[in-house]
Amino acid sequence: MAERLKGKKAIITGASNGIGRASAILFAREGANLILADINEAGLGQVQEEINGMGGNVFIRKTDVSSEEEIKALINLGLEKFTDIDILVNNAGISGGLDVLEEQRLDEWQRIYEINVLGPVYATKHIIAHMKERRKGSIINIASVAGIMSGAGGNAYSASKAALINFTKTSACEVGSYNVRINAICPGLIETGMTQPFFEWARSAGKENQLGKYCELKRAAHPEEVAGAIVFLASDEASYITGQAIAVDGGITASMSVPGRKI
Ligand code: NAP
């Protein structure tokens, strides 16, 4: 075991499923102590059990990231249990629908922004003074290729991820002189709870071989393939990387797009 995060203390949101869950398990394997949060408490319990079984050190807290009060309580739990926090992974997110423009609902836009944008904003706001004071810290925001280009999600989801990428850059520039690094990961098509209906539909329609066909590697990915990039950005190996939005997307953002909707 490499133990690239040995002794580090990390908070990961949206850790019950998908990319957050895979990251929690890889972080534990790499030696990190963990505070895991999710709205899905039963899922958190299962991840905790799995990590305890590996001999890891993990605490869980049910948290709705769209609530500033709940985020504050989550960060306080981290500081109470570990005294310091080295890493924050703002991963929790929701996707929303694919309605055409004239049928979009503002309450859906609002909910997506509350979780995908304000969640990371609250968490960054309440951890940043601690990281600046210690002159160390790594924050990783899980955005999406949808925040870079069209065709990978609905309007509200895509706009929320573009906002998150920009928040990543502006915040990174504000705190770089304190040796605090802030980066975003932009996943492509990953098989998780969020995309499960799409994968199931493709499989039942006999179109499995078309999943991920627009990217250069011609396949979708597993959440572990994103978790590896998150561990890298969290680790000291990435000590000179900040303010970046790194695509983990099989090359989809490297090529010219196909006009119109692709999903
Ligand atoms: P996932 O399997 O649905 O996992 C997301 C987790 O976040 C779920 O456990 C979910 O709980 C939880 N969650 C939802 N709303 C929450 C809230 N308000 N507070 C706290 N937790 C909440 O999805 P995923 O694909 O791993 O997504 C992780 C991140 O990657 C998201 O930010 C997503 O936008 C991004 N991403 C995913 C893909 C992809 O292809 N999968 C591509 C690009 C970017 P419930 O299940 O109970 O809702």
Features:
globular, alpha/beta, 263 residues, binds NADP nicotinamide-adenine-dinucleotide phosphate, 7 strands, Rossmann fold, 14% strand
Provide a concise account of the structure shown:
The protein is of the alpha/beta class and 263 residues long. It has a single domain, classed as NAD(P)-binding Rossmann-like Domain (Rossmann fold, 3-Layer(aba) Sandwich). The chain has helices spanning 18-29, 41-53, 68-82, 106-134, 155-175, 196-204, 223-234, and strands spanning 9-13, 33-38, 58-62, 87-90, 137-142, 180-187, 245-248.
Explain this structure.
The structure is a single chain. The protein is built from 7 helices and 7 strands, in the order βαβαβαβαβαβααβ. It has 263 residues and is of the alpha/beta class. The chain has one domain (9-190, 222-250): 3-Layer(aba) Sandwich (Rossmann fold), CATH 3.40.50.720. Strands 3-2-1-4-5-6-7 form a 7-stranded parallel sheet, sandwiched between helices. The longest helix is centred in the middle third of the chain and has 29 residues, at 106-134. The model has no long low-confidence stretch (mean pLDDT 96).
